[in-house]
Write a structure and sequence with these properties.
Largest sheet: 9 strands, mixed
Shape: globular
Strand content: 15-25%
CATH superfamily of the largest domain: Aldolase class I
Structural class: alpha/beta
Number of domains: 2
CATH class of the largest domain: Alpha Beta
Distance between the termini: 13 Å
Strand order of the largest sheet: 9-10-8-7-6-5-4-1-11
Oligomer: single chain
CATH architecture of the largest domain: Alpha-Beta Barrel
Helix content: 40-55%
Number of strands: 17
């Protein structure tokens, strides 16, 4: 399709008011060795002033773009559960004041094991949170220590018990693979313990060595003993086999769930839909524009006092939105549907835009076409699932 035709195909999502809300709490108990998220050790930080600034951004945001009913809320970090019970209540009350959150909305908060006692969990529950995602990473204490985590395996188990006592049933944990000196037995043992918790959702991520982390410095010096690529592939397949055998559906490259417990908020990203993004370093996407907020805590506080705390904002071109649609949508095991592409891009035909890429990836056995009519679309093959990044990158101009 020519650039002139693409330019005429305005994405329908550009006109949508977001129904999803992401809020960033940038504080944590410590900085893990692999972490490049916008996070800061909480000790000595102006947490209450940050919450003031966050509420100020909420006020300005709803004035600039009045929200409809919010269906999905995700509070990430950092570790949002480093807030004490009083701060937690104050924060959640401010969300309720500025956004109308549906009674049946999914309201997720990230948590680190050991940071959620019953008092705090009760404040979360009363404030509307109904889903918790715990960063377990591993159930091997030596591995946890080696990646800079300060919790131990028993802390995860106790945290899950506390959450259930407080009335939470929609719980998820993250596990990591491809860690330094991690063996397949390490991973298999962790999966066994994780499955004994009988949770409705599991997220399973391979280690990525990111810049500006301790692990990156060690990697540059040749001092980070990572598993060989073949072993990492074997680890990923082990995870898929074990979770599948236990009755979990792999609905996305890194996510497994029992029916009805798929992450609804993350589906916003995977379907390339708009969302509000609030807090230091947060990203948002609305009315065809992506923005990123100022990252530093004090810099964010100062900026919010003067207006919306934006670092930058960029209009998303139609071509870029199309590329995003394919790259994030193909992360889902159900793939992307041609009818959804046509709906988002004013009648544009998927194969008219990306025919060459689809033909090449199909020829390599990485993508397959499925369905007929409105149900037709494209998805990763079994061979393509572990090579997802190679597939996604093929849609970048």
């Amino acid at each position: 399709m020519s650039e002139e035709i693409i330019a005429a195909k305005k994405p329908a999502v550009h006109g949508w008011t977001p129904r999803a809300l992401y809020i960033h709490i940038p504080f944590c108990t410590n900085k893990c060795f692999y972490c490049d998220f916008n996070s800061y050790v909480v000790e000595g930080q102006p947490v209450d002033a940050y919450l003031d600034a966050l509420e100020r951004e909420m006020e300005l945001t709803v004035k600039a773009l009045p929200p409809e009913t919010i269906r999905k809320v995700f509070v990430g970090g950092g570790t949002p559960t480093v807030l004490n019970p009083v701060q937690m209540k104050r924060f959640l009350d401010s969300v309720a004041r500025h956004f109308q959150v549906a009674a049946d909305a999914e309201f997720t908060m990230e948590a680190n094991p050991g940071t959620t006692d019953l008092e705090k969990l009760t404040a979360m529950r009363e404030g509307g949170v109904n889903r918790i995602s715990f960063g377990a990473q591993s159930f091997d204490n030596e591995l946890l220590k080696a990646i800079g985590r300060i919790h131990e395996a028993d802390d995860v188990i106790r945290s899950i018990e506390n959450a259930r006592k407080a009335g939470f049933s929609n719980l998820s944990i993250d596990l990591m693979f491809g860690l330094p000196r991690q063996t397949l037995k390490h991973l298999a043992d962790s999966v066994t313990t994780a499955l004994q918790l009988d949770l409705p959702h599991y997220s399973l991520y391979s280690l990525k060595v990111e810049e500006n982390t301790l692990f990156h410095r060690l990697y540059e010096r040749g001092e980070l003993p990572l598993p060989e690529e073949e072993l990492e592939v074997e680890m990923y397949q082990h995870l898929r086999d074990r979770l599948g055998a236990a009755g979990y559906t792999q609905y996305e490259i890194s996510n497994f769930a029992k029916p009805g417990h798929e992450s609804r908020h993350n589906s916003t990203y995977w379907h390339n839909e708009p969302y509000y993004g609030l807090g230091a370093g947060a990203h948002g996407y609305a009315l065809g524009t992506r923005h990123m907020n100022i990252k530093g805590v004090q810099a964010y506080i100062d900026a919010a006092a003067a207006g919306l705390p934006r670092k930058d904002a960029n209009e998303v071109s139609v071509r870029e939105a199309m590329e995003d649609f394919m790259m994030v949508g193909l992360r889902l095991l159900d793939g992307v549907r041609e009818a959804d592409f046509k709906r988002q891009f004013d009648g544009a035909e998927l194969e008219a835009v990306f025919g060459a890429e689809l033909a090449k990836l199909s020829g390599q056995g990485l993508l397959e076409r499925f369905g007929e009519g409105d149900s037709a679309g494209w998805r990763l093959t079994e061979r393509g699932i572990p090579l997802g990044n190679e597939v996604f990158g093929a849609f970048l101009a």
